[in-house]
Amino acid sequence: MFIGIDLGGTNIAVGLVDNTPSVIAQASRPTNAKRPYQEIIRDMAELCKEVTENAGYTMADIQGIGVGSPGTIDSTNGEIVYANNLDWHHVPLVKELKTYYPDIPMAVENDANAAAYGEYIVNGDNTESFLAITLGTGVGGGIVLDKKIYRGFNGAGGEIGHFTLVHNGEYCTCGKKGCWEAYASVTALIRQTEAAIKANPDSLMRKKAEENGSVSGRTAFEAAKEGDAAAQQVVDTYLEYVADGISSVINIFQPNVLVIGGGISREGDYMLKPIQQYIDKYTYCKDIPQTQLKIATLFNDAGIIGAALASAM
């Protein structure tokens, strides 16, 4: 048995992972990211025990604990070098977590890398190169080359959400303007939907948002499926932003397989087909074997499974 921890700016999700690999039990708590890191890591340790005991096991049954965290990670030393969503600088995560479970092997990995590794193990077909893109609060990327996670020489490799899509465009949380993340994240989709509702007050999107209590990443998709023209424009524009970035990523890496993950990927073929059409049209060279594009299958479990497996690497 392994434990995977998906540390996010909003929630800490912890799962017990078996050897298949599948998540057999989960627990979570709000991150409350403004707290001292020691308190957040204490919650992580408590959740590890909670999820293990709820499944009928003890910590003595745990073979490894892996953490997937946002930011730049020093996986060798178990340190979170920098995580802007948490405002963490040089946090010795493994050392701190070891104070609770000193005898259990531990590892920390970038959250997008962890999710990519989980998807690779399950959906990568044992290929040599694999890339996973996660559309969520930001745009995460995880790269597997020669069947190993690619981190760059300094642990910061794979931050594909921060290449420039639009020169001098929308502000990004990284401090730059025009990043792909500022257009293709679900955060960006919500902003685009809110702007469309303001410009089209009679749109079905407004009704959908009111029914659900707020605008979400699904608002425009739901309204578009019911024939709302303004919503369809939002969806079309958003998916073009996503596809534009993916085509660039494919041109750079040419991976065997690329999967799209994050909650919005549950839209399945409704989002995959137009993205595929865009990529087919704009891929740099059409006379060679092409990257296989897929929707991720692990969804919210990807980070947990990938982090758990990273602890066994």
From TrEMBL:
InterPro entries: ATPase_NBD (IPR043129), ROK (IPR000600), ROK_cs (IPR049874). Belongs to the ROK (NagC/XylR) family. This is ROK family protein. It comes from Ructibacterium gallinarum.
